[in-house]
Amino acid sequence: MIKFIEETVEYLVEKGFDKPEVGIILGTGLGQLLNEVTILKEVSYNHIPNFPTATVEFHKGKLIYGELEGKKVIVMQGRFHLYEGYTLQDVTYPVRIMEKLGITTLLVSNASGAINLDFKKGELMLIDDHINLQGGSPLAFKGVELLGERFTDMSAPYNAEINTKFKSIAKANNITLHEGVYASVVGPQLETRAEYRMLKTLGADAVGMSTVPEIIVANHLNLNVAAVSVLTDECDPENLKPVDISEIIAMAEKAEPEMIILFKALIKTL
Known about the structure:
Shape: globular
CATH architecture: 3-Layer(aba) Sandwich
CATH superfamily: Nucleoside phosphorylase domain
CATH class: Alpha Beta
Number of strands: 9
Helix content: 25-40%
Mean pLDDT: 94
Oligomer: single chain
Strand content: 15-25%
Number of domains: 1
Low-confidence stretches: none
Number of helices: 6
């Protein structure tokens, strides 16, 4: 993997990806932030050596380098998931690349379902902690200790200082920002009524199919990391209706402007 990382980084440096400070991962239906970025360079994933390729039709598949609020940023427009057939090492490979390019802060977004029925679709949730239900670890491979501490501490995986700033920004802008626990499952099928009940019993406030692997690797690399979920549907097992994925994407797009306010204001303070 070290050889692959070196090849990928060398390619991107040659393309002009010069010392980004902040990495941003955009989740399903969350691409409008790019309208705020002064784009300096962009490369399709399928042109980057050793990079996975986005296979889901609504994930764009570009790595973008530019400026946002006076900071050099690198943005993943589209991410990778276990449900696409990738390994956990594939899914998190871009985080390792962004760290090698120079980022010290990683901001992650996702679309997720609200398990906590006090939370409503169209609102945002700041992730305070998570539950890994993906059946594996992105650190479980031979030689991981050459890239960072094998036994990575996860007592506080989300940066408390950044989370405090997010809450202050939300309050100042009259944005509803819940705080809670995100459960990450494999997918791609959505959950049954019994699974929603189980997730609630486990203490999850929201559920999705991403984010946790990237957070684990970000902690492995000692990055400052924070994540915000856009709540796209309400997962009430007693009143469960069939979910239309196009409706989820539409709800993510509708709620995204508030997430953009949070991300822009936060980046300004870094």
